[in-house]
Structures are given as C-alpha cells and as structure tokens.
Amino acid sequence: MNPILKRLMCFAALALVAPLAPAQEDADPHAHHMMMMNHQMMSGIQVSTVAYAEPAVTLVRDDGQPVALKDALDDGRPVVLTFIYTTCTTICPVISQTLSALQQKLGPDRDKVHIVSISIDPENDTPARLREYAAKFGAGPEWQHYTGTVAASVAAQKAFNVYRQDKMDHNPVILLRASPGKPWLRIDGFATVDDLMHYYRTLGAAS
Prior knowledge:
The protein is α+β, with helices and mostly antiparallel strands. The chain contains eight helices and eight strands. The protein has helices spanning about 5-15, 20-25, 30-45, 70-75, 90-105, 125-135, 150-160, 195-205, and strands at about 45-50, 60, 65-70, 80-85, 115-120, 145, 175, 185-190. An eight-stranded mixed beta sheet has the order 1-8-7-4-5-6-2-3, with helices on both faces. Strand 2 (about 60) and strand 3 form a beta hairpin. Helix 5 (about 90-105) packs across helix 8. The radius of gyration is 18 Å and the shape is globular. It starts with a helix and ends with a helix.
C-alpha cells in the first residue's frame, strides 16, 4: 500500500474513534491501550517498554566535567535520552531539532526534565564541539551532551541497544523514563514533538 495513503487511512481511523475516547477510557480498561496503538499508527513510530541496565561508565559532559552515566540519568528527573554525532547530516539534526522544540513545548516545566544526548563519535566529538552543536539547537541547561572514550560510548550504546558498528548506519531512537528504577519507553522512528509530549505526559500520569 502507498505509504501516504496508509497514513491518511490511519488519520481517518483515529478521527473516528477520537470522539469516543474519553468515555471509553473511563468504562473500558483497554481504551487507553487502544489510544496508544492508534497514536503509534498515526505517527509511524514503534514504541516499546524495556528494562535497560545502565552501564558503569564515565562520560564527559559538554562543559568538560567527567560524570558517571548512572549519576547523570538518576538525578530524580524524567529523562529523555538519545544518541547523536555532530557531523551527522540526516537523522541527528532531525532528532536534535525535535528535542529543541520539546524544550519550548515544555515551557516552565523544562527544568524538571533532563535531556541527554550521547555522542556515538567520541573520537571527533570533543566537549567544545558538543557545546557548539548544543548552541546551534538552543540547548538549555536541562539539555546536556556527553562524549568520552570510545569504549565508554560503545558500552552506553550497547546497554540501550542502539549500537551499530558504522555510525552512519544508526537509527532514530529516543528513550524516555519517568524516574530512576522505572522501565524505559523506547521510541523507534522519527518521533515528533507532539509524540514526545504525549508520552511524557503518559509516563507522568503512570508514575
């Protein structure tokens, strides 16, 4: 089926069920699950819940400060995690622009969320280069970029199942977690800022 036609059909299906959603959700325990499935179909993304174990590695923040990855992720705030590299011209700019829009969409709540971008090209992505990259996308203090040794970067990538031997083969993935100890929500595909806000609110309501 033509992908554009398929997406239009998904929009039409969602429009048909949307007016019934509030009443169904109160009466039917499966209504929320169905709404989530419709949202995924509409967006063309794949969403899964995964329990990842954070590796005991130290990364280098874009201000040059060494930080244990576990400490960076477990500061008590909800986390939005992704993997990028600064010379990427395809996937990474799209993801980073989405995260930039997320900051704006969060408004006064932006300080309550920790956005983390980890380089998959640490040999070239120095803290200084990451600072330039972060500035290009208007990253605020709640959005930090990390580099480090190749071994540390690879360990982080493998821990979150995003590792590819060739950095140019990496896929668009964003991970969200409500708080330390909670499972991760993995979004494969090009999530929009509205997708991220939807799942951020869903995680907040569930935590």
